[in-house]
Specification:
about 425 residues, Immunoglobulin-like, 4 domains, 6-stranded mixed beta sheet, 20 strands, elongated
Length: about 425
């Protein structure tokens, strides 16, 4: 397909102005007609030459999977197999759910040579993102026309949740510096811990840790070392209802829930527990609890293209489904967004789950609520907003207290605080021997 270039448009405008002048001065009409004929001939010849130009070969270099919200550089390499240099304008058709910069670009390809360009893109939605073929517009020899072509191959890239948090957790766990990301190191309590090994007594060991028989044999104090109980089950229940599409920042509440669930799954697998996954109030997905090293990758592939739907959250149906699917006592982590009207439906569902499992209910609290409480109250309207927010938060706190009195473990935090809040509460449960 041929597209007029700027030079051709400028030529046409010039001839139009000359035509107006020829209409005013009739003696200039023959010269104007000759110029028109010459311009038409040049346009025709240039168009024929443009149609004979062969599109260069193109190859896109982009990983098959990318993390959500992270800017990545994409490389495009063009190869000219012809004997003449090519001048072309390049535009890569990136998926709609991305932000890009550095396009279009105009380059010159040497004969029998190649050139590489780069641009930056940032995916803003998880799932399968499809790149179309690269569009190139070849400049004709006289720069009057652009010949449009599609070259290269279409490509699909998987956009996963941002797993950089998992990488940082693994590095800090290796260096025993988990407090830097907010993981609290609490003293062990309770007796529900597994024996790990005997070791020399260290300052700070409690008396009940001392193994007196081993100490008598070794003629020095020997302590028992315990580890958190292993081979337990953690089931993550993700709410895919319409409320999870709410946003406080660049990520939706559901994206924050997915990130938190992945971190908790990673920590649980490191502790030797089996991790499973179940969705509710949307597309139904189920992953039976497993503890293989590949489980985190399986979970990633289960949730990378999962999005909130328009369905209403049905806690009771989700509880019934989970009770049918797993019989072994587990830590059930339900990730949702609680509202006042959910109290009547949620409490019976949690009681049903608690007949067999320990339930951790985690709810996201909108960040705007805290901003409404701390903002300056200088008008009547703002005073009403402040009072209504305080009343809503007080009612919400009472709801969670009722759930906790019923035996559930509750977390109610803002989205960015959810990952560490979940990990810390899971650690408390393990070290307290409650599971």
């Amino acid at each position: 397909m041929l597209i007029p270039n700027r030079r051709l448009i400028g030529l046409a405008l010039g001839l139009a102005v000359a035509g107006i002048g020829a209409a005013v001065w009739p003696d200039a009409i023959p010269a104007w007609l000759a110029a028109m004929a010459l311009a038409a001939l040049l346009c025709l010849v240039d168009a024929v030459l443009a149609l004979r130009l062969a599109a260069p070969l193109a190859r896109r270099a982009v990983p098959g999977s990318l993390p959500l919200g992270v800017t990545h550089e994409v490389a495009l390499r063009f190869a000219n197999e012809g004997r003449s240099p090519l001048r072309l304008t390049v535009f890569d058709h990136v998926p709609a759910a991305t932000e890009s910069e550095g396009q279009p670009q105009t380059i010159t390809l040497p004969s029998q040579g190649w050139t590489e360009i780069r641009y930056r893109m940032r995916p803003v939605q998880r799932g399968d993102l499809a790149f179309d073929r690269v569009e190139v517009r070849l400049h004709s020899p006289l720069r009057l026309w652009l010949s449009s072509h599609r070259t290269g191959e279409a490509q699909t890239v998987r956009i996963y949740p941002n797993f950089s948090v998992l990488t940082r957790f693994a590095i800090l766990a290796t260096d025993n510096r988990l407090s830097q990301i907010g993981m609290l190191q609490r003293r062990r309590r309770g007796e529900g811990l597994d024996f790990h090994q005997l070791r020399d007594y260290r300052e700070g060991d409690v008396q009940r840790q001392i193994d007196w028989k081993a100490s008598a044999r070794m003629s020095r104090l020997i302590s028992r070392e315990y580890q958190d109980e292993r081979d337990q089950q953690v089931v993550l229940m993700l709410d895919c209802g319409r409320r999870m599409a709410a946003r406080d920042d660049a990520l939706s509440h559901f994206d924050h829930v997915v990130n938190a669930a992945l971190l908790l799954a990673y920590v649980s697998l490191r502790q030797g527990d089996a991790v499973g996954l179940m969705t509710m109030s949307g597309e139904s997905r189920w992953l039976a609890p497993r503890k293989a090293r590949s489980t985190i990758n399986v979970i990633l592939n289960q949730v990378y293209d999962l999005h909130p739907t328009l369905a209403a959250t049905d806690y009771h149906k989700a509880a019934v489904d989970l009770m049918k699917r797993t019989r072994k006592r587990s830590l059930v982590v339900m990730l949702s967004n609680l509202r006042d009207e959910d109290d009547e439906m949620l409490a019976p569902a949690l009681r049903l789950l608690q007949t067999r499992h320990l339930v951790l209910f985690a709810s996201l609290r909108e960040s705007i609520l805290a901003r409404a409480l701390t903002s300056r109250v200088d008008t009547f309207e703002r005073a009403l907003t402040h009072a209504a927010t305080a009343d809503y938060l007080r009612s919400r706190e009472l709801t969670f207290r009722r759930l906790e009195r019923g035996g559930a473990v509750c977390v109610d935090v803002e989205p960015d605080q959810l990952p560490m809040a979940l990990v810390n509460r899971y650690t408390d449960i393990k070290r307290g021997g409650r599971l």
